[in-house]
């Protein structure tokens, strides 16, 4: 009997965890040909999420819990789930219940047909216009910057075969961009369109600060093109500056009575080039910061408690 691992990251989801558990339990009750385990990774919730999970795990040994010593953030949480999953395939399922669980059997069917990665594509969502615009812009920029095409509108809702998981957990990345890593690993992949539901209970943990951090991490983890862009831009701007200086020199020689642009133009140019320099330094700083985090080897995640492992 093949085994499917479901991994779910939780942070202050006391209103949802029971429904998440029951949803997966009922789903696999209709799939008796598969064994399963449901791993919850608790990112140091401050509400009753962890006690509720412990109550569930006490009566159902298929439910396993990884409780962290503090909030290590969502970027590393998913990787810990992959490292502890023991199934022949692993499905990442969010606790916000936005992703339809009835799509999981379709994931499994494609997996049985030979696909190693089956991911959900958010064909339609209930996000506001600003969020839709930000997400669309993010994927466009990622596609432009990356050497490998990133599936557009594909989130974390996916099934990954054991072979891919084994390769994924070998990677030593302090702040992994898992969507990009799975794409880079390769194997046979396919996307399935679906409609993402609105959150019914609880509050979203993906605030603007997290989204910006996630996007920057994706850009610098997935490609070195941003830093190449800085290099090429510096060369182009330097060349333009030289040509401009030569132009002013020729203007002074052949048309000495013509005055060069005044002080206002000089001030605007100073501010412009100062902004360009600070932007480029910021891009370089992000790469240096990523290297710094990787080299120092601070704890990836500290697990204070394991239940049913």
3D architecture notes:
Helix content is 51%, strand content 18%. With 309 residues, the protein is α/β, with parallel strands linked by helices. It has two domains: 2-205 and 299-307, Alpha-Beta Complex (Spore Coat Polysaccharide Biosynthesis Protein SpsA, Chain A), CATH 3.90.550.10; 225-296. It has an eight-stranded mixed β-sheet with strand order 7-5-6-4-1-2-3-8, sandwiched between helices. Helix 5 (129-145) runs parallel beside helix 8 (208-222). The protein is elongated. The model has no long low-confidence stretch (mean pLDDT 78).
Terminal-residue CA separation = 20 Å
Assembly type of the chains comes to: single chain
Query: Helices and strands, in N-to-C order?
Result: EHEHEHEHEHEHHEHHHE
Shape: elongated
- The count of domains is 2
Q: Provide the CATH top-level class of the largest domain.
A: Alpha Beta
Unreliable runs: none
In the CATH hierarchy, what is the superfamily of the largest domain?
Spore Coat Polysaccharide Biosynthesis Protein SpsA, Chain A
């Amino acid at each position: 009997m093949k085994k499917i691992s479901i991994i779910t990251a939780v942070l202050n989801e006391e209103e949802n965890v029971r429904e998440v558990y029951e949803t997966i339990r009922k789903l696999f009750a209709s799939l008796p040909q598969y064994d399963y385990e449901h791993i919850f990774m608790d990112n140091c919730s401050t509400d009753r999420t962890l006690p509720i999970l412990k109550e569930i795990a006490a009566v159902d040994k298929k439910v396993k819990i990884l409780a962290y010593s503090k909030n290590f953030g969502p970027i590393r949480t998913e990787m810990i789930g992959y490292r502890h999953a023991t199934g022949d395939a692993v499905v990442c399922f969010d606790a916000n219940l936005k992703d339809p669980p009835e799509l999981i059997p379709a994931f499994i069917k494609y997996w049985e047909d030979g696909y190693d990665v089956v991911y959900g594509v958010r064909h339609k969502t209930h996000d506001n216009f600003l969020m839709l615009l930000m997400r669309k812009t993010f994927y466009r920029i990622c596609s432009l910057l990356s050497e490998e095409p990133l599936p557009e509108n594909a989130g974390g809702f996916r099934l990954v075969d054991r072979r891919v998981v084994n390769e994924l957990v070998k990677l030593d990345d302090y702040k992994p961009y898992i969507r990009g890593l799975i794409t880079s690993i390769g194997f046979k992949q396919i996307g399935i369109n679906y409609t993402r539901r609105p959150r019914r209970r609880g509050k979203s943990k993906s605030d603007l600060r997290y989204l910006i951090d996630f996007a920057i991490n994706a850009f610098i983890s997935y490609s070195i093109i941003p830093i190449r862009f800085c290099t090429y831009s510096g060369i182009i701007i330097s060349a333009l500056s030289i040509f401009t200086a030569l132009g002013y020199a020729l203007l002074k020689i052949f048309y000495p009575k013509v005055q060069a642009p005044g002080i206002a133009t000089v001030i605007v140019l100073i501010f412009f080039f100062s902004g360009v320099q600070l932007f480029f330094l910021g891009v370089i700083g992000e790469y240096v910061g990523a290297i710094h985090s990787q080299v120092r080897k601070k704890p990836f995640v500290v697990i204070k408690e394991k239940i049913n492992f």
